[in-house]
Amino acid sequence: MINKPEISVIIVNWKVRALLEKCLDSIIANRAGINVEIIVVDNDSRDGTSEMIMAEYSDVRMIALPRNHGFAAANNLALKQAHGKYMLLLNPDTRVTPDFFPKMLTYIKEHPEVGILGPKILNVDRSLQLSVRRFPDLFSQILILLKLKNVLINNKFLAHYLFGNFDYDKEQSVDQIMGAAMLIRRRVLDKIGHLDQKFFIWFEEVDICKRAKKAGFIVQYYPQATIIHYGGSSFDKQMIMWKQLVFNKSLLYYFWKHQPRWQWFILILFIPINIALTFLYVIFLESKQ
Fold first, then answer.
1. How far apart are CA 7 and CA 107, in angstroms?
2. Mean local confidence (pLDDT), 34-50
3. Where are the domains of the chain?
4. pTM metric for this prediction
5. CA–CA distance, 121 with 57 (Å, rounded to integer)
6. Architecture of domain 7-140+161-236 in CATH?
7. How many CB atoms lie within 10 A of CB 62?
8. Considering the chain, what is the average pLDDT of its residues?
């Protein structure tokens, strides 16, 4: 009888074939004797990703989709087929470090109260990538919609949401971790369900952290395990306006689902302003070309 894998690594890919290849190589090279199952879901990249996986990675299970189903839905397809005791949702533009799997697995086994575990995330130059935030609140999201996140650096609402004083060298319970690398206990998914497919992209990881905490599980940041994250590579070629519209839809759905209804009505008043600001930004960029 074949033993079930300890960890099922689930990677949703979209048009980052070269980075995905590096990601898979890092996983295979650094499994450290742990039984790791790898499932790749390709969201209709049309760049030869499926052919590459089938030709070069015989141990990787490939799910090729005929259209882009979004991040949450694609992950859920793999989650339904995964056999691991723990599920690692991993971005394709990441590389795992040599001790990543043993450290993450040991920690979550020794801490049964932890439902979701997130590592320290580093940029390619090994500088820190900010990966921990508090749950969204109305005032911080209004300021973000108004494009003021990089202007009002010392604003108390933004500082609270972005967790500006978070100690990234200390392991601790948090609200949410970045979805680039998220180790989830199977028991969490059995209790709260999979990712909410109404989120096409953005806020699905915030939502699952929120639901896990409501169900009594701890979301833990664990800096002793690290990954390298290129960041945003899947979206480099996409139109700015399209990204903004999808972000706004996810934000509104998150507030409809988790916040008082009156906050949703206030937030939606700022959406036209946000669209206008985004349009002006696009015009500005085009004028510079």
1. 13
2. 91
3. 7-140+161-236
4. 0.92
5. 26
6. Alpha-Beta Complex (3.90)
7. 17
8. 92
